Amino acid sequence: MKAERASETSSFSPVRFHLVSKRIDWTVPAWLVLVALAWLTIGNGSYALLSPYEARHAGIVHDMWAARQYVMPRVDGLPVLDGAPLYYWASLGFLCLFGSEEWVLRLPSALSAALMLGFMANALAPWPFRLGRWTLAALFLMQPVLMVVGRFASPDMFNILLLTVAVGSFHRASAGLESGCRPTSWLVSAWGATALLGLGAGPLAMLVPLVTVFLWLGMRRRLGIALALCRWPGSLAVVVSILLWLWLVAPQYSGMVLYMLEHSALAVLKHEGTEHGYPSCGVLVLAGCLPLLACLYRYRDPVRRQAACTPLAGLMLVWLLVLAPLHSLVAITPMGHAAIMVVPLLYFGVLALAPGPAGGGWRDAGAWCLYAVLAVAVGMAGAYFHAQRVSIMLPVIEGVVSRYQPLTDKVILLDRYDYEFSFYMQSPKLVHVAADWTLDDDSSAPSWKKELLESAQFAPDVAQRLLLTHEAFLERLCERRVVNLWVIGSEGAAARHSILSDLTEVVGTGKVRAWYLDAGTVPAQCSGLGLPG
Fold first, then answer.
1. Helix/strand/coil (H/E/C) assignment for every residue in 27-88
2. Pick from 323, 378, 392: which is nearest to 167 by CA?
3. What are the distances in angstroms from CA 264 to CA 134, 204, 302, 316?
4. What is the rounded distance in angstroms from the CA atom of residue 509 to the CA atom of residue 360?
5. Residue 310: φ, ψ to 5°
6. pLDDT tens digits for 366-379?
7. What are the φ and ψ backbone dihedral angles of 463, each rounded to 5 degrees?
8. N or C: which end of the chain has fewer CB atoms below 10 A?
């Protein structure tokens, strides 16, 4: 009796849910995109780059822009081994349009998040409940992980958009084929997004949407539809686009293509720790899973139970199962590993939290309590990332910038590498890094040292100029031909290198110090070191 009454009061049915709409109404998705974009960009220009991941991606984009090297992502002339140039190309476009500002570098992430919301509202419709799309928007704006990643300059949100478009388009194309249509536009969208995902997260990332969709069709015994999806020449276009990119890279950096593929494959088997700490990431993941728990809790509702038995709900469940082992192929930063699973969780959240046909009742009150919990989680996550992860380099950069001459001064980063330095000092080509380049214990080596050493093998000429040993560092200080030299290092660097006492300490704050050496000035200790001076 309850099931009959529910079917009478709701316009939802599994058949209607399965069919593809012939007319697409973009009004509501467009409003959702505008609301989400405004929400995600509020305050983006009021705080500096966060360290180290956001600073890394911002430094890469600015290095390519300042050096006018647009094909291969690079760090001070060394190639970036992510195998994912598309995000950096998109960021370069915004940088050329709007200038070198923090909010410009964050704009691709915010725009990707907003477009993902609009695509979900349209491609995954019709929703089984009234206000389903607006419930999706409310959940989206309260997801802690999406709020962090959407306001963070990194490729993760960009890749999540491409993955969502690929899987969603494959679903709509499959539904069209089952209903006897030829959904050419959805096939173009599906294969195109898959190809772009390969350029945005690495070639192996293309496997994620393909495995998800074809496993879903295989479980439903729709192998004929799977074959029909492959007959379209989109699969050939995917292969050609990736091979074209690899063909451009291979002659320039010998052996790097094989290394990138091997690195991506190993990322699936080996999950590294996160700088944020497992407890903080665990809290964000748990908060993101609350809608799924609520969906299971409200499964007794007949209309919601019908919605959970549709093919699309099955696709979302398969999506979660596939992403569990393969998330590292798409997400680059640790926070992206959590955010990438939010898309299917948002779908189940709408099934759980959207107002039912009758409305009201104590179950809807419980749903509002979950909204409140998510809102608190968003506030706590935002406060934590803003307070704890602002770069310690900013006070030093502010002290140095008034005397720094980008065209003549050279910088030596001593036992450190700060990605945001190039962005704020506007000088990516005049930086050297001095360190002990042996890696006796890989587990204790900082990530910046591993990355520079891995990249150095593919650009030995650049590495010879960029990477200095401690002996070469002393020689550089004693050279008479030095123009103006800056040394930026830790507070303990002076104890390790007593020669720094002959330099002028310009600024020292927290754990970072900056020393300055005028052109033609030779430190007094150079004569005692037996170096040319």
1. HHHHHHHHHHHHHHHCCCCCCCCECCHHHHHHHHHHHHHHHCCCCCCEECCEECCCCCCHHH
2. 323
3. 37, 7, 44, 24
4. 57
5. -85, 160
6. 666 766 776 777 67
7. -65, -35
8. N
Inter-residue contact 416 to 488 (CB < 8 Å)? yes
> Cis peptide before 291, with omega less than 30 degrees from 0?
no
Tell me the one-letter amino acid at 263: H
**CA 70 to CA 64: how far, in whole Å?**
6
CA count, 13 A, side-chain hemisphere, 395: 10
74-75 and 78-79: which strand pairing?
antiparallel
Helix ranges (H only) for 340-391 are 342-353, 362-388
Tokens of 325: 């082992």
Q: Which helix (H) or strand (E) holds 172?
A: helix 156-178
Phi and psi at 429, nearest 5°, equal -100, 0
pTM: predicted TM-score of the whole model, two decimal places: 0.86
Could you give the 3-state DSSP secondary structure of residue 6? helix
- What are 27-78's pLDDT values in tens digits? 788 888 988 899 888 888 878 887 678 888 888 888 888 778 888 888 888 8
